[in-house]
Batch of 2 targets.
Target 1
Amino acid sequence: MKKLITLILMVAVVGFVFVGVSKAADPNMPKRPMFDPNAIRGRVVVEKDADGAVTAVKIEHPRRGIWNVVLDAKGKELGETMANKIVVVKGTVETKDGVKWVTVESYTEMKRPQRRPGDPNMPRRPGGPGQGGK
């Protein structure tokens, strides 16, 4: 009797292992995005001269710091079109004299999720309903 119970438990354990492996190897399961060390996320900060020409473009991230953007054609385009927006920039990252530089290859704007009515998990705007607003 003891051998029969041991055999049943072993079959159950092996069955659970195979089910777990088959679930993990499901080809229809959505893929997680691959980590790209050359992708930088942050707010685009643009400095302009008195004539309105772009003189410097930086990408600021609150935890990871500031990257200076190389002002080639793509860098200037980033500064002109995405000023003060949150973006994901892909390109070549270099450090020169302790300063981080990125040569932009491509960029996309990150969209913020829209607030759904009645969703308690989304923050409210200051002065909105229930916060002393008009």
Target 2
Amino acid sequence: MNINSINSKQLTDFEQDNTVKRWYIPFSHKWKSWLYVAPAILLFMSIFSMLYLLKIERLLSWYTVPYFVLFVVATIWFKAVRKHLTDNLLKRKDMFQTAFAYPLLVQGGKVFALASTGQNRHNASFVKHQAALTEITEADIAKIKVGRFYPQDTDNQLGILCIRKFSIRRWNARWTEKDVFPVMLVEARWARVIR
């Protein structure tokens, strides 16, 4: 897909599409949960038990059946927990917002851009106009981490984000430093380029 040709309607569609949003769930939300502990323990216990049976040369015996059943049950449980957590995250309102971002500064391999989480987040002209009024300082550059969104102006709900240049160019080789690009804002804290 050519990200230069994305319009505001497509951004709105991306915001509603759960298959697109699944790619943007942060690692900490998807995998760091106590619900994974029990199935992971059962999974490792069954694997190590079958390895022990292999070592004592009893893998092809009836001793393997309970550990194989335990492995299958733990795998199903593990996948069910992952699906449950993902579905709960997708049901949350305002967790995922799409927006246009306009580059303020390109420094090295990083692009510092302005984006909005408000009503005008799908309006590329609004973001360009606000970017002309916004200046970025060295202090801002020092505190902004790659992939994060930092709110600046509460009235227009504007914020500065930092994205690596290669992640923008990966999805569109024709992107220039004066073009807007679409981003997915997760919980108004993380920013990812839309694929």
